[in-house]
Amino acid sequence: MKVLETKVFGCVDVLGDAYVQRETTIGSRTLSRSLYVGDLVDQPALDRAAALVDTADTLDARAREAIRAQHDGEPNVTDLVHDFIAFHLEELDLDLSALDFLARLDLVGISIHPREPDGFSIVLDYSLGRSVSDQLLAVRFDARGTAVAVSHES
Questions:
Q1: 75: pLDDT strictly greater than 60
Q2: What single DSSP character describes residue 119?
Q3: Is the Cβ–Cβ distance between 89 and 96 less than 8 Å?
Q4: What is the CB-side half-sphere exposure of residue 104 using CA atoms within 13 A?
């Protein structure tokens, strides 16, 4: 049996794909967050992934930097972040600046997926909250903890 053991989520048995929801503290926020672990991630990669999950404060800061960088970049590159913000400001009738909106995003989930050549990638999901919207900004990290992509998911 494979096991992912982290300080953030505790011990998670990985029998097939694993999904847990736990109260966690990352940064200054304590929230119920989800953790997904893909079955095809082998134990050595799970051990390395656990070490990265335990740096969740650092990953969160890097993810927010990646989102802001896309927001501040050239429009053809940043459409997904701009579209995400515009959709929510209009749909929810929020009177916020784009930067205030981004600051209100909560880290709601972490997932670990098999990925070659490093064995895994980690994705952090951001939302205004599950009760507000099913839309996410997802930031993917490589096995070294470098943000490599930002995507808009629903």
A1: no
A2: S
A3: yes
A4: 14
DSSP letter string, 48-116: HHHHHHTTHHHHHHHHHHHHHHHHHS-HHHHHHHHHHHHHHHHHTT----HHHHHHT-EEEEEEEE--T
Confidence at residue 77, expressed as pLDDT on a 0 to 100 scale = 52
Q: Supply the pLDDT for residue 73.
A: 63
pTM as predicted: 0.92
Residue 148: other Cβ atoms inside 10 A: 11
The CA distance from 83 to 73, in Å, is 14
Contact indicator for 151, 144 with CB cutoff of 8 Å: no
- Dig out the tokens for 19 from the structure: 């999904």
- CA pair distance 12, 39, nearest whole angstrom: 12
Helices 43-53 and 56-72, packing angle to 10 deg: 80
39 burial type by CB count under 10 A (0-12 exposed, 13-18 middle, 19+ buried): exposed
Q: How far apart are CA 89 and CA 86, in angstroms?
A: 5
| β-strands 121-127, 2-6 pairing | unpaired
